[in-house]
Amino acid sequence: MADNFFDNDRPARIRNEPWADDPPPADEGDYGDVRAFPTGERVQADKPPAIWHADDEWNEVDIPRRPWVVPGYIMRGSVTLIAGAGSAGKSSLLKGWGIALALGLTFNRFMVAEPCKVMSYNVEDDLNEERRRLSATLRQFGATPRHLAGMFRVIGPTHVGTLLHHDPASGYTTRTEVMEAIEAQIAEFQPDVLFLDPLVELHTAEENDNTSLRAVLAAFRQLAVRCNIAVVIAHHTRKGTVTPGDPDAVRGAGAIVGAARVVYTVCSMSDEEAAKIGIPSARRRFYFRIDSAKSNYAPLDGAEWFERKPYEIGNGEEIAAAEPWTPPSPWDGITWPMIDTILEAVEVGPWSGEYFTASRQAKARWVGTLIADVTHKQPEQVVSIVKAWLESGILQSSQYASPAMKGAMAGCVRVDPAKVAELRREFEGAQGR
Predict the structure, then answer these.
(1) CA 202 to CA 179: how far, in whole Å?
(2) What is the pLDDT tens value at each position of the chain, 433 positions in all?
(3) Would you say residue 84 lies in a domain?
(4) How many CB atoms lie within 10 A of CB 187?
(5) Radius of gyration for the chain, computed over Cα atoms and rounded to the nearest angstrom
(6) Residues near 402 by beta carbon (within 8 Å), at least 6 away in sequence
(7) How far is CA 366 from the centre of its chain?
(8) Residue 32 maps to a domain
(9) Domain count, the chain
(10) Per the omega criterion (within 30 degrees of 0), is the bond before 198 cis?
(11) What pTM did the predictor assign?
(12) Are residues 299 and 170 in the same domain?
């Protein structure tokens, strides 16, 4: 189905298929691309009808399922885009995805139903670097290079790695010799998924030109459809602060996001996130998150986290690999006796006649100070606990006549015994599981 998200200031052209007559008008084909016949003699070809139609009754059972390879992530006949800053972790992530596919294993939320054949084309790294990073990634799966034989093929350019050449004068986008060679590899190896890394090295088009990038992404989509494979492309985000899951963070023309069926952002842990979960600022660069920025066929989910963990490979080098990671909860290590101590102290107050408050500006009377003293949690983690108890009703806002304020009314928090009883049942139930 055509998507109307491209600028139509001029037709995009892909030189790859023969036509009997002159090139058809703009807006024909999946992305409104215009195909030109190849150089040489024109070959008569049967044109498909301009549109399809259906007005008959259908049986829902007969509707084919969407051809997901991994639900929510990659689909046959479609392009998935993974966008992140340089060194954010996207290449390490794709190594994990590729090995999980080849072995038929789960990698965080990336759930593979059965082993798939994978082909990986990386313009930036040579074969030795690819093997270093794959070797490190294999460690967390308990696997060795032997397990990838015949299932994971690494390919790369001998010289320039450009796959598509765009001529701004004519508007034509043509496949290069390298692209032809990749298609020959696809025909021979028959992969289920093709990884391409990075987008900026795959074409010569102006990255901010919607029409040109429409043609580039259309070419990769056509490759996916024609070969019945899923195509996954690594790309960069714009400079500056990036909001996780923001499709506008993807660098270049809007057509890049528009043409992809699934888009994920990759972002390093921020200073604020590190403080919230108690990670030292110097170590935050070892963690990154991926967030769904667009999915035409699946719901958007929350963040997945990964840690870049060093592994020693057979040659003695330490190589980092992305490993699924769960951020520590502010509740980790908190026992019921701790909670009981905190809530009893809330009812007594910090000193005679005074009570704790939810306001952080109250300093010694801030209930978070009490929580930190008992649990030894970081300030941002304490804030999360206070917020959770206020929202659940365990702590309820109230007022009292403050002796320190000569009887004037002051805000405070008090404990709701009924909510505490609910919390205890939940806590003990969680401990029993």
Answers:
(1) 9
(2) 444 333 334 344 444 443 333 333 333 334 434 343 343 344 445 677 899 999 999 999 999 999 999 999 999 999 999 999 988 999 999 999 999 999 999 999 999 999 999 999 999 999 999 999 999 999 999 999 999 999 999 999 999 999 999 998 888 999 999 999 999 999 999 999 999 999 999 999 999 999 999 999 999 999 999 999 999 999 999 998 889 999 999 999 999 999 999 999 999 999 888 888 878 888 999 999 999 998 766 665 578 999 999 999 999 999 999 999 998 888 888 999 999 999 999 999 999 999 999 999 988 999 999 999 999 988 888 998 999 999 999 999 999 999 999 999 999 999 999 999 999 888 877 666 5
(3) yes
(4) 9
(5) 28
(6) 353, 354, 408, 409, 410
(7) 38
(8) no
(9) 2
(10) yes
(11) 0.78
(12) yes
Burial bucket for residue 391 (CB in 10 Å: 0-12, 13-18, 19+): exposed
Residue 135 lies in domain: 67-324
298 and 383 co-located in one domain? no
Strand ranges inside 313-394, DSSP E: 318-324
139 in a structural domain:
yes
Task: Look up the CATH number of the domain holding residue 378.
Answer: 1.10.10
Query: Residue 418 phi/psi, 5° resolution?
Result: -65, -40
Residues 93 and 184 in one domain: yes
Residue 106, in any domain of the structure: yes
Neighbours of 302 (CB within 10 A): 11
The residues pairing with 183 across neighbouring beta strands, listed in sequence order, are none
Location of structure tokens 């759930």: 111
Asked if 318 and 386 sit in the same domain, the reply is no
Domain boundary among 294, 324, 354: 324
